[in-house]
Amino acid sequence: MEEDVNYEELPGLSYNKTITYINDFVIKSVHFLNKFSTNCERKLSEIDSSIKRLDTIMNIFEDKLSSIEGLDDIDVPRETTSTTTTTTTTTTTEENKEEENKEEEKEEIQETSNVVKVKDDLRYRKWCQLVMRGVPKVAIRMKMEAEGLDPDLLDDPEQPAPPMTDEELKKIELMKQQEEEEVDESEESEEMSDGEFSD
């Protein structure tokens, strides 16, 4: 049998005990949350580093594939096994769709091959090389803005470069002429030095 207890007559908990219980609960909760947050940050940093590593590997792989000529014309053979007539019809339709998709991709690749990328453009090539060497983007951004170029294009160097204006085309032609003159001068100086040594 349960005894009738009048809780109003029972003495309450002491003030010191309630404070110690609350403090203990708060301390344990804070320790748990700190440990949980540090573990989450550590795992996120590991995931971020692995994603960056995979990104660099993919970029290297894409550059190596792009350097090989004639990959677009290669057709990969497929092995299709069908048990019933329904499966044969579905596989043929899927193959037709895949061939159509391949043809569309080839057309897109041919169209994009004529487009100059930001990293290959003469206006942005040196800036992309500076970024790859570890130069701070803040300094590069200021210099590019001073030259009238868009620094946001360095975030994605694989995207197509904006069209050149007439003034930019003239500048690039002058730069090419200067480079050719420097090459000719260096060749002449080498020939002169070879002639002096031969004498």
From TrEMBL:
GO biological-process terms attached to the record: actin filament polymerization; exocytosis
Pfam family, one: CCDC53
Biased composition, class Basic and acidic residues, residue ranges: 167-178
Regions of compositional bias (Acidic residues) in chain numbering: 179-199
Positions of the UniProt region annotated as Disordered: 75-113, 150-199
Low complexity bias (residue ranges): 79-93
Taxonomy, superkingdom: Eukaryota
One GO CC annotation: WASH complex
PANTHER family: PROTEIN AD-016-RELATED, WASH COMPLEX SUBUNIT 3
Family named by the database record: Belongs to the CCDC53 family.
Full protein name: Wash complex subunit
Organism annotation: Anaeramoeba flamelloides
